[in-house]
């Protein structure tokens, strides 16, 4: 009996040890599990934090590369759901990378950078990109267009007579996804430049244009003009360099093809010489009619698009004659934008004389004989809508400002102000500085699609007696993003 009691006690002790051992092993296993799980989650959190940091870096680099404008918070989301959020204020950029947003495992990292001058940094400018304009010169005679790469200025005319030419941007700025001068039109752009006008004779010069044209059926090799018609300002016309005096056949084209600058296109013309006739541009099948632009009697700035493209404007001596109406006032059809008229009292939306409207500068403000060297600051904004309006068309709103308070080509009055800051919409102050010209045009689907990319630059022409020089300076353009 005593031996049996000892045996039972021994078995009980062993069972107790087994229970204790199992409990200990279970506790140890649970501890190992929690240690392993914690380590795993810590590893995942570290990876997410690193991903969030890399996203923040990507956001910062994207803001710098695309030269984005101010924003209180703009998200850029990837297909994985990861994103970076940009907050841009002045010269300061804050980029936050976000991983697994809205979950218990969300990770965020923010980095900031300050870049001096970022708040007013243009996408393309003369000081930075002047070489890309030098490679885009088209001229009927060498020296008519002079791109000074050292001073970062461009001169049109150079006091030559009976010549024409143009200069286009032909570079590849990443901010506008530009290739060979063709840039994304996107939702529009803002541009600014200073121009100075000089002339040698008492004859009033013809003037020049700031032009933009579609990249679908044009290139940086495109050119307008006509050796016999300086009033086309090298914006209209087929670019004919010379004509046979007997047959009037063209002996060669500046654009090598004779196509001219094809629509859709638009320009702001600065015109001082009156070509007031309203008849067709040809007196007959052979002779050009210099009085066919339907100009008003005063110096003016006006919006021009393209002509009527009607058979009545043709003459057999002009190979691509449909382009010859492209800067004629009032030309155009109901389906396409109509050029500004020469009515300086009622057509105030796209025809500015500096005489009938405010500001009142006088009828010869552009080529003012009482001012030795007139200097002007010019700004243009074009807003391109990507959705159709009620009429099933796409709207383009054009606004232009011009100021004559520059004492010289430096024009310090507008340097580093809201007027020359193309990165911001103007005006941004009160009271509002209203544009002198405002026009909204409508384009159908095919024309709108052709304008997915565009080229830009200046055109000019001089007649036999009108010797002029227009100097362009401080140019900058910003693509609205």
What is Rg?
Answer: 33 Å
Overall geometry: elongated
| Annotated CATH topology of the largest domain | Jelly Rolls
Number of domains: 2
| Structural class computed from helices and strand pairing | alpha+beta
Low-confidence stretches: 4-38
Q: Whole-Å distance between the termini? A: 99 Å
The count of helical stretches stands at 3
Number of strands: 20
Helix content: 10-25%
Brief characterization of the structure:
This protein has 481 residues and is α+β, with helices and mostly antiparallel strands. The protein has helices spanning 2-66, 126-134, 445-450, and strands at residues 71-77, 83-89, 92-99, 107-114, 124-125, 137-139, 145-148, 153-156, 163-168, 183-184, 188-199, 207-214, 265-271, 300-304, 351-352, 375-384, 394-403, 437-443, 453-462, 468-479.
Your description of this structure?
This protein has 2 domains: 52-119, no CATH class; 122-479, Jelly Rolls, CATH 2.60.120.200. The protein is elongated and about 85 Å long. The strands form 3 sheets. Strands 5, 7, 8, 11, 16, 17, 18 and 20 form an 8-stranded antiparallel sheet that branches. Strands 6, 9, 10, 12, 13, 14, 15 and 19 form an 8-stranded antiparallel sheet that branches. The chain has a 4-stranded antiparallel sheet with strand order 1-2-3-4. It starts with a helix and ends with a strand. Strand 1 and strand 2 (83-89) form a beta hairpin. With 481 residues, it is α+β, with helices and mostly antiparallel strands. It is 17% helix and 28% strand. Residues 4-38 have low confidence and may be disordered.
